[in-house]
Design a protein that fits this description.
Elements: H1 3-65, H2 67-84
């Protein structure tokens, strides 16, 4: 090889290495960017579940405070205690 050809081959090799590094860096950045929304989605799902559970608990408390449910629960407990004892 001539000196000029040698320099061109070295320059191409250097550019190829640099391009490989850029591809690796871009791939890493893309993976990191894709992981971030997943973490946020998990947090959002957690919040939605907590809100739904809190709403369900509020409905249960309201039902248990009503007079008709109290009397029904009282009669069930009384029957169970009589049957056991």
């Amino acid at each position: 090889m001539t000196t000029a050809t040698n320099r061109i081959a070295q320059r191409l090799s250097h550019l190829r290495d640099k391009a490989d590094g850029l591809v690796v860096r871009a791939t890493t950045n893309a993976r990191m960017a894709l992981d971030r929304p997943r973490k946020g989605a998990i947090t959002a799902e957690y919040v939605i579940v907590l809100v739904a559970a809190t709403g369900f608990a509020a409905v249960l408390v309201a039902l248990l405070k009503s007079a008709s449910v109290k009397s029904q629960l009282s009669s069930i407990i009384t029957k169970a205690l009589k049957a056991a004892g």
